[in-house]
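Lecture 7, part B: from sequences to assemblies.

Below are the input chains for today's worked example.
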Amino acid sequence: MFLLRDRGRWAAASLGKRLPSCRLRSDSAAPCRAHFDVVVIGGGHAGTEAAAAAARCGSRTLLLTHRVDTIGQMSCNPSFGGIGKGHLMREVDALDGLCARICDQSGIHYKVLNRRKGPAVWGLRAQIDRKLYKQNMQKEILNTPLLTVQEGAVEDLVLTEPEPGYAGKCRVSGVILGLAQTLEKLGFVVGRLKTGTPPRLAKDSINFNILNKHTPDDPSIPFSFLSETVWIKPEDQLPCYLTHTSPRVDEIVLANLHLNSHIKETTRGPRYCPSIESKVLRFPNRLHQVWLEPEGMDSDLIYPQGLSVTLPAELQEKMIACIRGLEKARMVHPGYGVQYDYLDPRQISPSLETHLVQRLFFAGQINGTTGYEEAAAQGVIAGINASLRVSRKPPFIVSRTEGYIGVLIDDLTTLGTSEPYRMFTSRVEFRLSLRPDNADIRLTFRAHKDAGCVSPQRYERASWMKSSLEEGMSALKSIEFSSSKWKKLIPQAPISINRSPPVSALDVLKYEEVDMELLASAVPEPLKKYTAYRELARRLKIEANYESVLLYQLQEIKEVQRDEAFQLPQDLDYLTIKDVSLSQEVREKLHLSRPQTIGAASRIPGVTPAAVVNLLRFVKAAQQRQAGVTEHQTN
Amino acid sequence: MWRGLSALATRAARAPRRLCARRSSGAGSWTPESTIFALSSGQGRCAIAVIRTSGPASGIALRSLTASREPPPARSACLHLLRHPRSGEPLDRALVLWFPGPRSFTGEDCVEFHVHGGPAVVSGVLQALGSVPGLRPAEPGEFTRRAFAHGKLSLTEVEGLADLIHAETEAQRRQALRQLDGELGQLCRGWAKTLTKALAHVEAYIDFGEDGSLEEGVLEQAYLFPLTVDRDVRTLEAALGSHLQDARRGQRLRSGVHVVVTGPPNAGKSSLVNLLSQKPVSIVSPEPGTTRDVLETPVDLAGFPVLLSDTAGLREGVGMAEQEGVRRARQRLEQADIILGVLDASDLASPSCCSFLDTVVAPLAAQSPTSSGQRFLLLLNKSDLLPTSPPASDTALLGTPHLLLSCLTGAGLDGLLQALKTELAAVCGDSSTGPPLLTRARHQHHLQSCLDALSHYQATTDLALAAEALRRARKHLSHLTGGGGTEEVLDLIFRDFCVGK
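Predicted structure of the full complex, as structure tokens:
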């Protein structure tokens, strides 16, 4: 339905400093010989993050978008975060990205999912006021230093000869008209995915009184590490309501399947967020959940999550009327299906630069992902790397062992995707270490040092938190009493008195019944000061919770990192290299995915153990040659 | 080595990069990499066995076993008495070689222990190493893998590697398949399947349980959680537990049943050992206290492999050397699978005989016959010295069943062999009808680790931790069957090498 250029997907191109111009064609009276380091095409969730990140890194950046007033638009659901997605937002925030901070100025119903399942899998989530989010995002983007926003449609790339010594058949040096066709002509493999959106309902026509009301968390947990609290008090936030489909809904769907083109087509739809038609077909005779979510503080619309549908409008109205609480609901817009192009993400490297065209980066839906958070995560990384590319610095890559962002990008670039890719916690091997609470410790310092994209304020805050945590942990470890003394101090905890060696405060904090406040009331000196700041106390408790298991995991992480340290040369032509014995099939697979490391190569399905070892041998041989050369030089 | 490789990659790659960047974790710091150990020479009885360690804790292991403060000079052979670091029990006199990294086979700190090749010595040293903090048994091929990772394999060796792997993975997989084709393999695969399902349920519950936008089928699974998963895990725990109880059986079949001959001095223990082994293993003399050390000899008894130990006669208040002999005898007694208590039939009223009956025989006889403890046979030797009519009532024997025997004439030997066969069959199990045997210590290790992980699952209310426990349990099972873990291709390759190579 939509072509590439119609959606908020974007590509960034980093332009050489000495290039005389960036060729732009635009309706406004823009300077036609402007000079930018980085051009970002598209102002969706990936584009805004990329543009802001490139500017934070110090690059003169141009954001090109059809209309400035669509920047920050939430095109589908009125919410941010969720399980796995909340992790991504925390990581985007740790890289000083925008979406978490903007959400904390625009949320209207904060609720952490998985509250009872352990802090490693908490899903930070909030309903967001669409209007506020857009306003706040535009304010942020239009006030970012070094960032210029320009209305206009990018239609082509200006390509020049490739830089020698780098992979890629040409180099992008500017942009003009007909982008989608250009990309196909350049040889990018294009696929097609589909998704859908539910109808919108008039709030005043719904009978909420008979429905299950869900109130937000009190207190709200903010998305951003910089937010002490969110802009709105819990009691002022809006509720959500839960209802279910009825057998009549099944009947209407089944009777009208012939009208539904969405299901019959072969294009792959998501296995999550499926349309009501696919749910009814796959799981008949069941009641399906429908969440009624507010679209904004002063919005008259309700978003019925779970009711994504492509039936003709009058049938949608009929179907809605069969649902409890919606008997008299007025449909303001019908739901509809969307099909969109994406480019096989195996055509990009982990820095998100394309293999084919130097200095051209892809991020967002164009890479086959779904969701605002997945888009934002790629956006930050592409923006940072476009900027680093301009200044000829090494790319900034988050590994699988460092963050959900790393897993997302490694999965996409190594394995590709045949359905809209969504983040889950179960995709992440080191879930216990990569938690929402510690994203700042994991990423902020690296981002500061290697990318320079972190504000001093954030850096200081993360440093303070890191040293407070370390200090707190060693204080907890140093306090040791006999188990019977602990039992007397904290009768609430089921401490076994049989334990003979002294028990540390850290061990006591591991009990579910114990938190820092309770511990500090038993041992005020020196623990009292760690309870003054609630966030610190909460994080100490989480660290204690996972302390013993993390020792195991750190060893495994180190082993993975060892494999990742075996780099494969990027200009390797897998189809023709002679020194390596590889089957044609393996060659093609490697050629397609272009793994950066032995670790990544070993994750590609179909690449055999023997092939991996042959590749290792190749790397070793190159290393020996290199060592020989160095020896000569020193002699 | 790593830096060298990175530097190469940096130059060769399109742009220099830093992949293995430092990572700051929570409030923790890097734990040192694990240290591994394994028997590197062949399995089974041989003159010398080589046990190897690799990793940062190698030095600690060396110091703990040799009880020395300083490591020996690098790369030179030193003779040391090895002791168990906890109990202080002497294990063996061994040649010890210390290879500080990077000038070692793997590039890490390494130690080689060249010990005597008896299975008891080898398993004793391995156990001792296992008790040193930071040490764990090596995965198959892990030494090679580490050597490779530290750039210690030459190019030609690497060249051969791919072919080798190709051949070895196939051969080993077939071998593992053959070994695990029977009931044990089926059981393990069944268990692994149960765990995979349980894990899928937990994962679905975590990722989809509270997220409205998911496929209902997944949620359906998640609804069943935690009831079905908890039930499955409990069933699995019970199954693993009962198999582990049988675990020693298979190992006994492989490395021999420990049969220990004990009794008061001069009862004829050494004569019995010589008789059973049909060779002069022990010096026999009429003088009490002739045998002072533990003498071990492998014997085939009724088709069962047996390690027969002759020990010093148990008595108090004698010379230092004999005291040590008595201490070793008691220690050996604790490790025995079958105990042969020998008494002088003509001297049952002597103090040493009574003391033996009170302190050794009575507790053993009091064991319930069904318990999995040690088996015990009481032998009355020197029956040739008895009057032709057997002693009417031996109150001293407390009604303990016993066999009459004369090592001198051989009378009663058939009866003894028959009784021993029954006992041997009981401790080894019947391999054709009983439950599948765990023939290797490795099997036991992984099953035990699996069981430990499952207990962590039960103990936690944090679902992320619970899922991690299930993952860990599943990993141990898949190590056993050789399947699974396909996503870690590198692991798979190197795993298919022999342990310790």
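Note for the exam: The first helix of chain A runs from residue 45 to 56. Keep this in mind when comparing with the next example.
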